[in-house]
Amino acid sequence: GAVVSQHPSRVICKSGTSVKIECRSLDFQATTMFWYRQFPKKSLMLMATSNEGSKATYEQGVEKDKFLINHASLTLSTLTVTSAHPEDSSFYICSAATSGRAPNNGEQFFGPGTRLTVL
Amino acid sequence: QKEVEQDPGPLSVPEGAIVSLNCTYSNSAFQYFMWYRQYSRKGPELLMYTYSSGNKEDGRFTAQVDKSSKYISLFIRDSQPSDSATYLCAMSAGYSSASKIIFGSGTRLSIRP
After folding, report:
1. pLDDT band at residue A39 under the 50/70/90 scheme
2. Contact flag A104-B102 (C-beta cutoff 8 Å)
3. Which residues contact B58 (CB under 8 A, 6 or more apart)?
4. How confident is the model at residue A10 (pLDDT cuts 50, 70, 90)?
5. Which of A33, B7, B68, B112 has the greatest count of CB atoms below 10 A from its CB?
6. What pLDDT shows up at residue A99?
7. Using CB atoms, which residue from A97, A100, A113 is nearest to B43?
8. Neighbours of B29 (CB within 10 A)
9. Which is higher by pLDDT, B94 or A113?
10. Mean pLDDT taken over chain B
């Protein structure tokens, strides 16, 4: 099956610093990548959708200047949490989606997640 | 009102029991329905998907969708301790999981040996 990796898997940083998280599709090209945030015992909340070479589309309530998304290639997207604060501590999960024609209209594959702790 | 409602549990059942997990939704545009399994501190993995109403069976798992009631279910037969995880229902207005997905809050399931 398709594999999506995230790096780092865990990061601890001081308040005010910026953190970059990478999401890679290892064995397929992803037309679209998604970034989610998950609080403990809560569901995945979609933060933004990004297509290669274009600006990301952010969900309502997500600060685009706070969470910078770059989708430079069909296999790599990055999420940068700028000037991180303790309330940004969360589990960040990316996914990469393939495209396809019916009956296989594509599928979204999830990365293993990155746990961010801001002190 | 949330677009997708799911009882967070936790749900604890003995090994071998039949498990029933459910979600309701409010957006009638949803037409692609999924169930994901998520182990602690891992990304979700797709278990089953169903397009529109109906049933779908895969081994010990059966997914049901009733669009008229806006209600979906996942049944697990002969439950095993390895089934212990959080189960998330998910839905999309698109034709596949490659579209924007809305997740339920997840139900924590524990299977007692």
Report:
1. confident
2. no
3. B48
4. very high
5. A33
6. 72
7. A113
8. 10
9. A113
10. 92
Q: Which residues of B touch A58 (CB under 8 A)?
A: none
| H/E element, A35 | strand A32-38
The encoded tokens of residue A57 equal 């589309």
Bond preceding residue B113 cis, omega within 30 of 0? no
Contact B88 A93 (CB under 8 A): no
Q: How many angstroms separate the CA atoms of A21 and A88, rounded?
A: 13
Q: Which residues of B touch A102 (CB under 8 A)?
A: 95
Please check whether residue B101 is in contact with residue A107, taking contact to mean a CB–CB distance below 8 angstroms: no
Is A97 within 8 Å of B41 when comparing Cβ atoms?
Answer: no
